[in-house]
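Newbie here. two chains, one complex. Structure please?
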Amino acid sequence: MSPRSDRTLAYWMILPVVAAVLTFIVGPTYDVFTMGFTRFRMGMPLEFGSLANFRALFADPVFWTVMRNTAIWILGGTIGCVLLGLLIATYLAVDSRQTMVLRALILLPWILPDVVTAMAWRWMLHGQVGIIGQTATSIGLSERPISFLGDPDLVMWSLVVVVVWRKMPLVALILCAAIRSVPQEHLEAARIDGANAWQRFRFVILPHIAFSLTAVTVISMIWITAEFALPWIMTGGGPANSSHIMATYIYQQSFQFFNWGVGAAMSVVNLVVLVAIVTLYLYIMRRSWRSEADR
Amino acid sequence: MGSVSLTNICKSFGGVEVLHDISVTVQDGEFVVLVGPSGCGKSTLLRCIAGLEEVGSGDIHIDDRRVNTIAPKRRDIAMVFQNYALYPHMTVAQNMGFSLRLARVGAEEMRAKVDEAAAILGLEDLLERYPRQLSGGQRQRVAMGRAIVRNPKVFLFDEPLSNLDAKLRVQMRSEIKQLHQRLKATIVYVTHDQIEAMTMADRIVVMRGGRVEQIGAPLELYDNPANVFVAGFIGSPAMNLFPALLADGQVVIEGAGTLPAAPDAPPGEQPVIVGMRPEDMTISDTGIPAEVVLVEPTGAETQLLARLGGQIVVLTMRDRIEATPGQRINITLPPAKIHLFDPETEASLRTPVATNRSREVDHA
């Protein structure tokens, strides 16, 4: 085959993917973007090039709650996932009969559908009939039943606990695999050099899994940012808008209040945050990849 | 420096016993090589000394201190691993100084010790490099540097040269031996390569199947192997071993003829396994008749494959000889160079002079 027809064939081969990306990603993104900068008024022609939606968004007192909640949601969820994941991975990396079983069982939260997880946790955290609140009362931890999802000061943290419970297992498994790939001889050499368990973890295991650790941190950050069903089903943004994050706020504005412009404006803000995270990811990974290639 | 003594060491993994009642003593400053085929337990024994494995029963002493239950880092030993086990994220200097850093030695003292070890090994220019930027031989040297920095009582080497190419292996072999002579270090060295063992060791421990087959200085093992296994394992090309009959001071090789046996051979008539080193045999006018099968000149010497009765034997000649396949020759060798083994027990039938002589060497 000639190089020319090779190239033609190559374009044909990537056409489906390019078409799909244009249709389902670039198209809607463009739509949302233009919508965000368009003013909607009943009975009036559309006005493009207006910042009215953003003015309305920033004027909404809920907006700053949403930003604060989103920060708690993303940072709390990511840090929780990675730290707890690392802790559990370190335990799972040890070979024993318990860990063999646990390595399989730990994926259970991961394979449950979002809706099932959300409903189950909603009932467990319920103020009157929730098993967690009841247990806390019966063993004397609290005098009154705690309504985890009904208390504006607790609700975000309860959501973070649930998302960590749901997203952490895969983080733990990936890190477990990374820890188990540390050459046994490095650990033995460190033992002979006089390193105790913590020092072996700090000076041998941690540098060895740094690449995986960076990767799972950014990946879980993206997962958690994109998570919608869990908070929406559990609280719907309530009580009194105290648990809205960007995803739930966008949904409510757009599809419940039909406030398309504000929803789109929030989506643009969301996009900027996501792009920032992905840029950070690419930047860190680029450095990791380079050092990996040197090895 | 220190001595190591292993007394009645037994160890099993699960139900499989891998070390059977092993007793070995390593003198202060001695270079002892544990050698044997894979799976003979030599590495496990070394790891027991290091404290990376626990022994089932028996005692390990380092300098009169029983170390069975003492953690590796408190045994005052250093180990060089087959894959070097250098920490990839640390520079050469950091790798070598890691143990000192853990021991909270001051920065200046650490620098001085690392520099000193680097000077011994010729690593001065590489101190800021990372392991991935080094060649195999350099990595090997860094691994040794890491051991030297600690100034341990005993150095343990676990097949340190098997990842290097043939030429580098020969070079590192002599470097390690020179290092031993310079540092007067006590070294226990594991290898499966009998040439490494022969060239480096003060004393060799030959192991098979978790048992010690023979302990002795390299040339003693070579001259007086205690059994068929050691006879066949030590020496390259290997000793010719085949069944024969010992009758009234004569070795009768079926289909070929007889050779006079050494005077210390047992009297009477019995079946034996006879062993002849390729270089002990010479072609002469008299002697036992054989037929040339193959001539292999290697330059320095000539190897000859010959049919002797029912078997093929290898002869190594210093001289370049003119021989053609099919040619009839006569082979002879001095009676004292004929090794005789019991076909049942595989033990040597000759007076074991080896052990007496090895004791003398120990105390020399």
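Moderator note: The first strand of chain B starts at residue 4 and ends at 13. The radius of gyration of chain B is 24 Å. Thread marked as resolved.
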